[in-house]
Specification:
The protein is an alpha+beta fold. It has a domain of about 350 residues: Outer membrane efflux proteins (OEP). About 60% of the residues lie in helices and about 10% in strands. Strands 1, 2, 3, 4, 5 and 6 form a six-stranded antiparallel β-sheet that branches. One of its GO terms (cellular component) is plasma membrane. Keywords: Lipoprotein, Membrane, Palmitate, Transmembrane, Transmembrane beta strand. Pfam families: OEP.
Length: about 500
Amino acid sequence: MTAILLAGVLAGCTVGPQYKPDQFAVPAGFTDAPHAATPEEIARTNAEMQDWWAQFHDAELNALVRAAIAGNYNLKIADQRIVAEHQMRQETASAWYPQVDAMTGGGDDRYSVNIDNWPLRPGNPANRPEASVLTYGARASWEIDVFGRIRREVEASERAIDESIEARRGVLVTMLADLAGDYMDMRATQARLEIARHNVRVAQDALSLTQRLFAHGVGNNLQVSQAQTEYDSEIARLEPLQAHFDRDAHAIAVLTGQPPGALEEALAAPSPLPVMPPFPQTLPSIVVANRPDIREAERAYAEDTARIGVAVAQLYPNFSVPLTFNPQASAAYQAFQLGGMSWQFLMLASMPLIHGGRLTAQIARARATAEASRLHYRQTVLHGFQEVEDAMSDWQHDTQLVARLDRASADATLTNQRATRLYGAGLTDFLNVLSSERTLLDVQDRLAQAHQAQLRDAVTLYTAIGAGWQGRALRDTHLPVDQSQQNILAKAFSR
């Protein structure tokens, strides 16, 4: 009893390093940020970023986001990983408590008669080879966590739960980015399809005009052949664009948890490009702390630090209390008599002595793993800053590109109109018409792609700052077990 009390006093001792967050200096702001952030601007930015997809003012995109959050299978898989980590923590924490097993049994036992029968076997005066045996009892063991091995393992399991939660948030952020990105690509592809169809009509009109002029003795069959080639080339642009649209529609459907073709018809309805949101008024560097991958890396470092303590505790004595209660008899009425009682109650202690360096190697490995996690955390932070800087730079440069291509599109449209009128009046060669049409198509297609890139830049920036998971509670992560279906023993001893 004294030993048990002493072990209880020592139970407050936990070996191994205590976790301390890594002190890592980060930039106070971003290179391309408009200005230093005020508390009010930070609060407004955080509010806008919580539902960042709403900044595009596209009702269909908002509906798809709701459907994806409810039905995406990657999110559901991440939910179950959280469940698994919770149960792993429960399994680890069970080592704190006595482990008790009940047993009972009975049957016949026969001894060999081809061995020395003297002295007579106790309880069997005639030394008969057969005997009936009835047994019942319990076995128990209890490890006293003097040096905190179990506590460190539970701590590591709790950090693993935190990791799984952050990983699930990361899945959500990635899913939102994929969905919004595919949606932007799909709408931009629709715009490019409309441009291509318009140019098909223009090429057909040019072909008809060339054929009429040739029929009236103006022009030659070379011009007719050139017009026919241009018309066929414009038609050939449609199929690759349609295939691209189909792939985006399939990807969006799968992200919402539906078969690939489920949304193809609904999404095929013409729709304008989403509204380009304004550049955030402020982008303080503290928002990078919202990135789930950074938060997950920090929790991984905390988990690996706790596992150093698990390895260190192996060097210290281990205290346990084994208990066995195992009465045996040959008749039921004898099973509860004092003579049939059999039990054992001990206080055991073990101390590692010689293991060929295995335990110290485990400690060194745990320390190296924790240091790798710390360095990975720093690398993840730097990568996060890089992604934000790149996204801001791309947004600003693509905005300038859109403005320039807008002017180029207006100029190309005017040039094409003039060339068509002059050709119709017989004042210029058809080659000028073809050249102006190709220039106009190229500029319009590049403008549509620039709009697509600009929308993608906004999605990338919102994703880079880790927006979208805030304010969204985790789903119920308890296993769907009906307590009413469990028997009374399961209810009593399920802890």
